[in-house]
Amino acid sequence: MNGLEYEKTVQEAGALAKTRDLFCFCAFTSLRYSDMAALKRTDITEDKLYITTQKTNDRLPIDLSKNAQAILEKHKGSEFSRGLALPVISNQKMNKYLKDLGELCGFNTPISKTCYRAGQRVDEIYPKYELIGTHAARRTFICFALSNGIPPQVVMKWTGHSDYKAMKPYIDIAEKTKSNAMKLIDNAWKM
Q1: What letters, b where the CB count within 10 A reaches 16 and e where it falls short, cover 83-120?
Q2: Cα gap 174→53, rounded to integer Å
Q3: What pLDDT is stored for residue 164 in this prediction?
Q4: 25, 36 in Cβ contact below 8 A?
Q5: What is the domain range of residue 164?
Q6: pTM above 0.90?
Q7: pLDDT at 14
Q8: What average pLDDT values come out for the chain (191 residues) when binned by 10 residues?
Q9: CATH number at residue 86
Q10: Is the Cβ–Cβ distance between 85 and 75 less than 8 Å?
Q11: Which of 1, 58, 111, 142 has the most CB atoms lying inside 10 A of its own CB?
């Protein structure tokens, strides 16, 4: 689907537009769904937000990117219950709408998942959009930051990860990205 058709479809469906904004906000800030859903206007200054994470109960200052600020600005004139900063929808509904958005975007690459049921190996294949959930936004932030050279200790300050063990899966992905990027450079320099 081309960008104009996609935008028109999403704008016509208010829940999909909210989902897009909430997912992107999480991807621009590293917030978990639960922390984004609890974010109040009083937690936000001009260029930072301060959040006490639900999972670890840590108080984190998170710098706001221009994209995150734009989403907050878009919703600034609206009133939400309990002084919330964003038009929160339930995690379950948001996950459903993310799958709808993923399908609209054509994220249909087959993905194989293996699990064991009653001791038997079961391989199932899903289109990629069926596996998208709210936590993908947080993973996107972390992988993007690491693959663009932001040191893990800085990323950990934003995300609230307390040790490298929790960050290791993301660091491994970033290392693979860097390795693949070097292969692209090598291929570009071949004569």
Answers
A1: ebbbbbeebeebbebbbbbbbbeebeeeeeeeeeeeee
A2: 25
A3: 77
A4: yes
A5: 3-189
A6: no
A7: 85
A8: 58 83 96 95 94 83 94 94 95 95 93 93 95 94 86 86 77 69 73 55
A9: 1.10.443.10
A10: yes
A11: 142
Structure token pair of residue 163: 């040790």
Give me the number of domains the chain comprises: 1
The per-residue pLDDT for 57 is: 81
Q: What is the 3-state secondary structure (H, E, C) of the chain?
A: CCHHHHHHHHHHCHHHHHHHHHHHHHHHHCCCHHHHHHCEHHHECCCEEEEECCCCCCEEEEECCHHHHHHHHHCCCCCCHHHECCCCCCHHHHHHHHHHHHHHCCCCCEEEEEEEECCEEEEEEEEHHHHCCCHHHHHHHHHHHHHCCCCHHHHHHHHCCCCHHHHHHHHHHHHHHHHHHHHHHHHHHCC
- Let me know if 132 is exposed, middle or buried by CB neighbors in 10 A (0-12, 13-18, 19+): buried
Q: For residue 65, what pLDDT is reported?
A: 93
Give, in order, the Cα–Cα distances in Å from 6 to each of 11, 22, 95, 139, 168. 9, 17, 19, 24, 35
Q: Quick check: 31 and 51 in contact, CB under 8 A?
A: yes
Please report, as a single letter, which amino acid is at residue 88: V
What's the token pair of residue 89?
A: 């929808």
Contacts of 191 (CB under 8 A, 6+ apart): none
Closest by CA position to 50, among listed 72, 31, 24: 31
